Amino acid sequence: MIIDEILKRYPDLKLKLLQAKIDKKPYDFVKQNLMGSMIITLVLLFVIISFLEAFSVKLNIIAIIIAGIAFFLLTFTVLMDSPEVAIKKQEHEIAREIIFAGRFLIIEAKSGVPLYNSMVNVAKNFKVIGKYFKELVDKVNMGTSIEEAIGETIETTPSNNFRKILWQILNSLKTGADIASSLDGVVQQITKEQMIEIREYGKKLNPLAMFYMMIAVITPTLGITLMIVIATFLGIKVSMTVLLVTAITLGIIQLLFLNIIRSSRPAVEF
């Protein structure tokens, strides 16, 4: 079947769905995306055809079919990539809490609090990472050993740094090493990595701000002023449509720049 062939092209889809916290089987996920893509494509084609007919534009069946296929493939690709988007979002959210949660575990371990109780406390005190520890604690309460529960969480977590912390806890449990000392080294390493990310972001921000001022502020302002002056001397009328299109274009450019700046910002909080 078509779905089976698609699944062959996404061999790691099951793991990505687990990491993205999407409670669906790969087969059902692909089936849902195929149906969703079909519906969205039909709606888009209906809107486009209605728009063209309203302006008495002659319809080209071949062009409509090609556009429909293109819309369908694009929509299906975007929907299939939705787990990646969810994983990236969760990874950023975990990054905001990872250092605080790591330090919290270190303090708990140095205070002599049992590991199980420490995990329960993390689940109560941290919004994002707490969900993973709550799942871990629930597995232990259902009879799974702490080692097995941590191992399963390592496989499903989307964050490499969180995976490092869990690995250190698991290794300490297996070897009998001091958890606090092991975690302290990992947390310090993660802190240094995040500091490097902040410095790199600062270096990127200056040229981005300069390009933003040049392309989205200075050039449009001077360009529109010159356009109006030249149009006045030549007696050319600048219609409201031209001004609206220009304003919308500038707005889109500014939104793109703001999105680039926002997306490049490291998910770090101190």
List the helices and strands and how they pair.
Layout: H1 2-9, H2 13-19, H3 26-54, H4 61-80, H5 82-110, H6 115-125, H7 129-141, H8 146-156, H9 160-175, H10 179-234, H11 240-264
Q: From the alpha-carbon coordinates, what is the Rg to the nearest angstrom?
A: 27 Å
User: Rough shape?
Assistant: flat
What percent strand? under 5%
Report the top-level CATH class of the largest domain.
Mainly Alpha
Q: Helical amount among residues, as a percent range?
A: over 70%
- What CATH calls the topology of the largest domain is Receptor-associated Protein
Identify the CATH architecture of the largest domain: Up-down Bundle
Element-level helix/strand string: HHHHHHHHHHH
Low-confidence stretches: none
Number of strands: 0
- The average pLDDT value, as a whole number, equals 84
Could you describe the largest sheet, including whether it forms a barrel?
A: none
State the secondary-structure class: mainly alpha
Count of the separate structural domains: 3
